[in-house]
Amino acid sequence: MSDPATSEMRFRDPARAKALGARLAELVAAAGRPISVMHVCGSHEQAIARYGLRAAFPRGLDVTMGPGCPVCVTDLPEIDEAVALARAGVRVATYGDMLKVPGTAMSLADAQAEGARIDVVYSVAQAVELARATRDPIVFFASGFETTAVATAAVLVSDPPPNFTVLSAHKYIPPVMEIVAEMPGAKVEGFLAAGHAATITGSAIFDAFAAQHRRPVVVAGFEPLDVLAGLVALVELVVAGEARAVNCYPRCVTAEGNKVAQALLWRVFQPIGGRWRGIAHVPSGNLRLRDEFAHVDARRRFDIDVASLWQMAPPALVEHCVCGDIMAGIAAPRDCSLFGRACTPDTPVGACMVSSEGTCRIWHQYGGVPDLVQLGARPDAARAP
Amino acid sequence: MSVRERITLKQGAGGRAMRALIGEVFVEGLAAPVAPGDVGLADLDDGAAVRIGDRWLVATTDAHVVHPRFFPGGDIGRLAVAGTVNDLAMMGVTDAVMLTLAVVIEEGFPRADLERVAASIRATCAEAGVRIMTGDTKVMGKGEVDGLVLTTTGVGLTDRVVTDRGLVAGDRILVTGTMGDHGLAVLAARGNLALDVELVSDVAPLNGLVRVALDAGGDAITAMKDPTRGGLASALHEMADKAGVAVMLDEAAVPIRPDVRAVGELLGIDPLHVANEGKVVMGVRADRAEAVLAAVRAHPLGRDAALIGTVVAEPPGRVVVDTGFGRRLLVEPEGEPLPRIC
After folding, report:
1. Domain range spanning residue A286?
2. pLDDT confidence of B340, banded at 50, 70, 90?
3. What span, in angstroms and rounded, lies between the C-alpha atoms of A292 and A281?
4. Which residues of A touch B (CB under 8 A)?
5. A51, A122, A365: which to substitute to probe chain B, counting the most B Cβ within 10 Å?
6. Is residue A280 part of a domain?
7. pLDDT tens digits along B301-334
8. Cα separation of B167 and A358, whole Å?
9. DSSP 8-state code for residue B313
10. Neighbours of B274 (CB within 10 A)
């Protein structure tokens, strides 16, 4: 049963997918009205795009991606802090995805082109190794939701070297779902929650949310069948008017979550309010280091001069970028005049085109028209025999 | 000097950017008009064809650089001979009259490596039944060229030219074996990936295999291309684009070795986006598809051949993948996942 090939087969079985797809179509048809749900995870969008699910969703079911990319929602001033540190000569280590995310005037990649020292790492542990191998101060510019924040926390409680500090841009996902649910104009009737984040938080954390915002939440995994089964459960709840949380990823997620990881997370971080790029001020949405960890907090160890960056003119195209609306689930990449033209993975204008978790980047990777509707292809006539 | 005024690696990666560069810089000024039925520079096919009497004279030329020069399954010498033999074969020439070989060597290059490459060239020529009849050798100063560059030209005759633009709606798409082997083998051989598996390049001369297919299919083989740089994704796009048709790909039918698939998933590289050096993708009229498939499978280089899709009319120039779960576009790679691989 631990054979990976076998487990892959179990969750990538087209015949089961067809049955689930048929059930979705039946539910939406029976509802007799369009249904709109949101997922909040780049990995869900990756699975949907990779397996072409959007072209197979029933007409009348709208599945949008919300603020599910931690890199994308990293706000301009947070990027500016990292850029300012790097330009001041401090070595900044960060995930590759963060390199090209535009700040107010420039990205870390721009700073690097000017001569700043940026180290791309694949894990916080690698950044610590880097610090151990040098006497230079190393600032780890940390991004990611609670899943990744736990890894950062684990490093900070195990005596990192004295030249190692963290600039936290970590985000906490549950509060932003409340913001998006109550946004004016939001049509979202239910949420698909990210299975990996829920391994930490547990699925029960969504019970109160579901009740308070009168919208069901389904925790789902990332294989195509996970996504389809999650959507079937979610649409069933929407149609039945049941606003509760359901765990459709029980092979990884429990109701109470990972208590050890939660304890570690809240021992090191405290949730504070802050802006998520393009979305809104999110109360308790940002994870910042607690006072006990001031000695490893780059914000308290360095004098970060972001103001100098704010004197510079922002790139001209930015005003046309609709990343904010895309992350809020109000717009799709197809609504952006820059998408695939002025804004590509090589020359990103907005953060959503930078990260492999960003909606624009994912859509672009698979041709930009995930439902194939704009191509005028008659889906059934065009099917391979 | 702006970005547009410098050549980027992306413009050599076999995709749209490369075709645009060639079109703007070379085709624009160099492409002479050709007689009907002939194939010229503007066609951007695997080679050129000129009618002489009742046959066609076909020529093709290729420059080869690869890192590492020796990789599991082959080396730069085998790649050079096979590449040229295969480009001729894609045009319908399966018994080349001759090959030429130009060698540019960097000062300081180990003589033993050069001899090893020469031995590989000799062996591959014998395998393909071709001869190198003339050549040229240059040595450049240290740093003036990167190690070794081989340029090969092939010349041959054929009664029927097969182009890469002949797809017609209703044709089946056949590949002669597993996809992505060469590209991922070379990426894995670059050394810094620390993988436990050894992937092996598929580099091989395909003239024998193509002969078998043409004998079985004749005129029913409507188009051929070797999916080298840019992989199956680029080859299918180019074929669809030139013919003004679309390809509907059945993802589950595309043969991919499990180790290639696993390394691809690990590296985030789609095996359909990387080079093959021993495979053909062809369009075959539906009524002959099974017969051609059976003939190809009977050849040692075609054992894993499969029918992987169908040519449809709409939407022109696109390749749509049926994943078994739904459908999506296949996109052309926009550059090499890592530096040069073939």
Report:
1. 76-171+258-310
2. very low
3. 26
4. 5, 14, 17, 21, 49-57, 224, 228, 344-346, 356, 365-370, 372, 375-379, 382-385
5. A51
6. yes
7. 999 999 999 999 989 999 999 999 999 999 887 7
8. 36
9. S
10. 34
Cβ–Cβ < 8 Å for A83, A130 = no
CA distance B137 to chain A (A): 39
Q: What was the pLDDT predicted at B194?
A: 66
* Helix (H), strand (E) at residue B172: strand B172-175
What value does the CA radius of gyration of chain A take, rounded to a whole number of Å? 21
Domains of chain B, each with CATH number or no CATH: 39-158 (3.30.1330.10), 172-329 (3.90.650.10)
Question: Is A372 in contact with B310 (Cβ distance < 8 A)?
Answer: no
| Confidence band, pLDDT 50/70/90 cuts, at residue B336 | low
Whether this prediction's pTM lies above 0.90 is answered by: no
Total number of domains constituting chain A:
1
Q: What is the average per-residue pLDDT within B146-169?
A: 96
Closest residue by Cα to residue B204 from B299, B37, B83, B71: B83
Pure H helices in A51-145: 76-87, 108-113, 124-132
Which residues of chain A make contact with B329, given a CB cutoff of 8 A?
366-369, 372, 375
Does ipTM top 0.90?
no
Q: Look at residue A375 and tell me if it is in a domain.
A: no
Low-confidence stretches of chain A (pLDDT beneath 50):
1-6, 377-385
pLDDT tens track for A136-161:
999 999 999 998 999 999 999 999 99
From A120-124, B189-193, B225-229, the region with the lowest mean pLDDT: B189-193
Question: Alpha-carbon Rg of chain B, whole angstroms?
Answer: 19
Cross-sheet strand order for the sheet of A35-39 = A61-65, A35-39, A190-194, A217-220, A245-247
Question: Which residues, numbered 193 to 232 in chain B, qualify as contacts with chain A under a Cβ-Cβ cut-off of 8 Å?
Answer: none
